[in-house]
Amino acid sequence: LEKGGCRFELIGFDACLMATLETAVALEPYADYLIASEENEPATGWDYSGWLSALSREPSMSALELGRRILDDYAEACRREAPGEPATLSLVDLAEFGAAIPPVLSAFSASAQALIDTGGYRTLSDARAGSREFAPASRLDQVDLVDLADRLGTPEARVLAEAVRGCVKYN
């Protein structure tokens, strides 16, 4: 991406488990928006026909508008082709992410470490144990950061959760 010599309006992953903090950090210098799934994607993956046709009819479509179309087409395809299977996909504003998340994540991390250091490990452990987890059979230990922060409930966790929610423009 660095050698590409350009900034992308949108980078999307038609792949499982890519909507992570780490992915957003890695891509933030190279794109305006990230589209990725928090969970395993159903085997059908993205439905390319609708949004590509819409883009060909309106090539000046904004990245935000295109992203919403990709998500809507994906959700509809999943309802049709894989009913009952979990289907997640999010559109994240990477510029907002890059500006908002690093300082609040640092504060959250320091707060969590202080909780552990002062005997509050059980509080953090209970929050983690109750958090929404993705692909648990794979043993990736990947949880919903907002859910974890909400369950922890410290002031720093609440700020982090709100900042992450603000960066997600559509899901």
Q: Can you put this structure into words, describing what you see?
A:
This protein is an alpha+beta fold. 53% of the residues lie in helices and 13% in strands. It is built from seven helices and six strands; from the N terminus they run E-H-E-H-H-E-H-H-E-E-H-H-E. The chain has helices spanning 21-27, 48-57, 63-81, 94-117, 121-130, 145-152, 155-167, and strands at 8-12, 31-36, 90-93, 133-134, 142-143, 168-170. Strands 1-2-3-6 form a four-stranded mixed sheet. The chain has a two-stranded antiparallel sheet with strand order 4-5. Strand 1 (8-12), helix 1 (21-27) and strand 2 (31-36) form a beta-alpha-beta unit. Helix 4 crosses helix 5 (121-130), helix 4 packs antiparallel against helix 7 (155-167) and helix 5 (121-130) packs across helix 6. The chain starts with 7 loop residues before the first strand and ends with a strand.
